[in-house]
Specification:
The protein has helices at residues 54-65, 68-85; strands at 2-8, 11-15, 21-25, 46-48, 87-92, 99-103. It is an alpha+beta fold and 114 residues long. The chain has 2 domains: 2-48, Transcription Regulation, Sacy, Chain A (Roll); 54-103, no CATH class. Strands 1-2-3-4 form a 4-stranded antiparallel beta sheet, with no helix packed on it. It has a two-stranded antiparallel ribbon with strand order 5-6. A hairpin with a 2-residue loop joins β1 (2-8) and β2. The longest helix has 18 residues, at 68-85. The radius of gyration is 20 Å and the shape is elongated. It starts with a strand and ends in an 11-residue tail after the last strand.
Length: 114
């Protein structure tokens, strides 16, 4: 990653390998740095990626409103269902078939859909 702008000694705007912008936080990450410098490896404590897709923004807001315990419980239910049905959850969408499963043994989609 390369630094695009230094906000202060702990916050920089950088670009990744795909030229996407990221806000990076880390103790001293911007100290003595200039635009174009490479971000030192391990200097980042946290990073933020801007979300431009309105559907993704809505999904992130929805996830933020859900208690983490419920998300952990949902994951446990999915793992248990995968084990019991011998399938792997491959995607979750907002379409009419919210979860698609793929059989572990032959790669075909099983008859059941959740």
């Amino acid at each position: 990653m390369r630094i695009k702008k230094v906000f202060n000694s702990s916050v920089v705007l950088a670009t990744g390998s795909d030229d996407a912008e990221l806000i990076l936080l880390g103790k001293g990450i911007g100290y003595g740095q200039r635009p174009g410098d490479i971000v030192p490896e391990g200097a980042t404590d946290r990073f933020f990626v801007p979300v431009r897709n309105p559907v993704a923004k809505e999904l992130l807001q929805l996830l933020d409103s859900i208690e983490p315990e419920y998300l952990h419980l949902a994951r446990e239910i999915i793992v248990y269902a995968e084990q019991m049905l011998g399938t792997t959850c491959t995607s979750i969408s907002t379409s009419r078939s919210p979860i698609t499963c793929t059989s572990r043994s032959n790669g075909r989609t099983p008859a059941c859909r959740w």
